Amino acid sequence: MSLIDRFVESHNLSKTEYVELLECRENEETARRLRDEAVRLRKQYYGNKVFTRGLIEFTNYCKNNCYYCGIRNGNRHATRYRLTEDEILACCQNGYTLGYRTFVLQGGEDPYYTDERMVKIIQRIKKEFPDCALTLSIGEKSYESYQLFRNAGADRYLLRHETADETLYRSLHPEVMSLEARKQCLYNLKELGYQVGAGFMVGAPGQTISHIAEDLLFLQDLQPQMVGIGPFIPHHDTIYAEERAGSVELTLFLLSVIRIMLPKVLLPATTALGTLDPRGREKGLSAGANVVMPNLSPVENRKLYELYDNKICTGEEAAECRGCLSKRVESIGYQLVTERGDALQ
User: Phi-psi bin for 341: left (phi > 0), alpha (psi -120 to 50), beta?
Assistant: First the structure.
């Protein structure tokens, strides 16, 4: 039995086998077979539905200094902002009117938003929009904090691990941060009953095929309900300003691999894909993805949440242009739907 046949049958491989599979990424027949199987599985479990998430980037303050990130604490050129509780609720109201039934509160690790403040925001959103799912993406917290947020009504949590390899992690993050702590947070979130999302950068500085195989093994072990991957894109105010961006083609290949590995996963076609390729999100959906995350943040703040350069913030990226996005999704045979889009068990 061939490696691809074994993978399609078992949905998991060893690290050596993942490396072997990734070494064939430029083989058109291999990529086509994986893509066809990924699309088959995606349609088996989710049909032609594409779920939308209304993204609210509510703070670009961050206590961390991750070397690749445009909103890192050490970037003195960033123009900082925070949304008030009422502004966040106004974004939700706008999104609800437009048909969004999942809101994603995403921000840097901002100490201003204490547990008490976050609990109040979560409770207000869930009270005013009881039929909506609420996803948090606010970084590493204690088990107790995650429990408070869960008890307040948070349904899902996104925490990209960025890389599962210790050596690569150390080269991308300051000493005060720990890969072990990051992974533990993800296991804590699963224990508390969140629908959990992990993920990694594709083409991060220093990343090898072996590192990506480690990421796949970690996802295989974690079994998250969501996985967010996107190509690395450099930011001009970081030490990686002159590095090459990650590969769109490799990202698409990996979307297919992840769909086969985790057939029921919620898999976004990310903003980073759309930033590097005008049809990146359509290509992502055609490779096995089934989620898009348009931006509900206030227009004046969208460009300030600058994790990387040239991030798309208008047009189809703006949640207001749901009609435009719907047409683009329909052009490749899928349908944008207005439902929560929970992960299948």
Answer: left
Q: Compute the distance between CA of residue 29 and CA of residue 150 in angstroms, rounded to an integer.
A: 45
Alpha-carbon Rg for the chain, nearest whole angstrom, is: 19
**Token pair belonging to 60:** 């670009």
Query: Which H or E run includes 116?
Result: helix 115-128
Residue 159 and residue 182 in contact, taking contact as beta carbons nearer than 8 Å: yes
Provide the residue-wise pLDDT of the chain in tens; the chain has 345 residues: 899 999 999 999 999 999 999 999 999 999 999 999 999 999 999 999 999 999 999 999 999 999 999 899 999 998 899 999 999 999 999 999 989 999 999 999 999 999 999 999 999 999 999 999 999 999 999 999 999 999 999 999 999 999 999 999 999 999 999 999 999 999 999 999 999 999 999 999 999 999 999 999 999 999 999 999 999 999 999 999 999 999 999 999 999 999 999 999 999 999 889 889 989 999 999 999 999 998 888 777 767 666 655 666 544 456 557 778 889 999 999 999 989 999 998
Which domains, from first to last, does the chain contain?
Answer: 36-337 (3.20.20.70)
* pTM: predicted TM-score of the whole model, two decimal places: 0.95
Angle of helix 248-261 versus helix 209-222 axis, rounded to 10: 30
What is the DSSP code string of 260-298?
HHSTT-B-B--HHHHHH-TTHHHHHHTTT--EE--B-S-
Q: What sections of 153-294 are H helices per DSSP?
A: 166-172, 179-191, 209-222, 248-261, 271-276, 280-285
- CA atoms of 256 and 200, how far apart (whole Å): 15
Residues making up the chain, counted from first to last: 345
Half-sphere exposure of 301 (CA within 13 A, CB side): 22
Amino acid at 165: D
Q: Taking a C-beta distance cutoff of 8 angstroms, is the pair 23, 209 a contact?
A: yes
